[in-house]
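Protocol step 4 of 5: obtain the predicted structure for the target chain.
Materials: sequence only (see below). No template structures provided, no constraints applied. The aim of this step is simply to have a reference model before the mutagenesis design in step 5. Sequence pasted as it appears in the construct record:
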Amino acid sequence: MKQKKRRNPIDLLTGVMQVFFFAAFFLLFLKDWSVEALVMAFAVPALLYLTGAVLPRLFPMDKLLLALINFLCALGILLQFRYSASRGFTQAFNYALGLVAMIGCSLMVRHIRSWKLLTVPMMLASCGLLALPFVFRAANAGKGATAWVGFGSMTMQPSELVKILYVLILSFLLSRRRVVTSMIFIGVMLGFLVLQRDLGTAAIYAGTGLVLLYAATHSKLLTGGILAGAAGGISVMYLLFRDSYFLTVQNRINNWLDPFATYDKLGGGYQIVQSLIAIANGGWWGTGLGLGSAEMIPEFRTDFIFSALMNEFGLVFAALILCVYMLIVLRSADIALRSASAFHALLSTACAAAFALQTFIIIGGITKLIPMTGVTVPFLSYGGTSIVSCMALMGLIQGTAGLNEHLLKEDRRLADTPGEGAAL
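Step 4 output (structure tokens):
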């Protein structure tokens, strides 16, 4: 009797995701009888099928990692569409750009054999991009961090793009044991970000660099010394400039300690309080899709999109989404452990660390676990620079995963070749 062919678990996962998003967009259609919602009810599941089933056949990729990324990106489209159809479509376009960036970075990792000649140009490009906000400041430059640049109606955050170069440069240098050069480069990058008062991104850069230094050297003394020196330097700078240059940092610490005391002040705790109210209103199971009130948070589409998610979907669903983020990090770490070269192992480690730190910093900020820093929620927040950057990081990991699979197939081929084992 012929045995039934077992279906791939990842295909089953993709099928469940398709049903979920069809139902979600169809509910929005029933709520407002919006033609756009009906179109998205069919378009998003189709997009999930194309990217999950077709893309891995064209480009070598880790299917589980791709499925998890696609789920979060589709959820980001849903959350943005729920409040504004035009922003939902724009988020879908940003996701398409992110797919191109992911594929490009994956192919780059697979086909570039020597990074030595590219390291210095990438360093110069990193410095040049991070210097742009001092020359072309966006219109909101006076509201805190000056990390954005504006060219007419278009704005971008160079530090998000530099993040890709940053992990590539550090991975190459540390794979060649150039620890001092790596530390100098980290210091220069952090200097730019501190001057821009973009401390959230600075924390991501610093944490990623520290993880890589430890992964490459395994030196607890070096890691501890860097941590102690950084803590001392930050403390001195904060005490000297907290009422002038770092006044924004002081305000955010005050808002974290007691947001209700600064609720009605300029730059005060209004957003944090509104976020906490939205989370509390959502409860365990949420108010229901389309029935929430996250609009009361000024930046609910970007920094506080996770608060909007908890408001409508509840704490239980939010905990499951955090598990998805954790699975992405664990899968990336597994890919790093299976890498054949130090460079690719460090590269996947760096991407996983940057992704994990960004997620922790923003989720911790909106739930008042740590002071709010204003970075984006990976894949969910509105914005082209953010989603392209996150997808590019995943592309670097996918490139490493593709190389791992290629080497595994090569090993199997050699093992199955007659006479090879005897020759050895």
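Step 4 remarks: Residues 59-406 form one domain. The mean pLDDT is 86.
Proceed to step 5.
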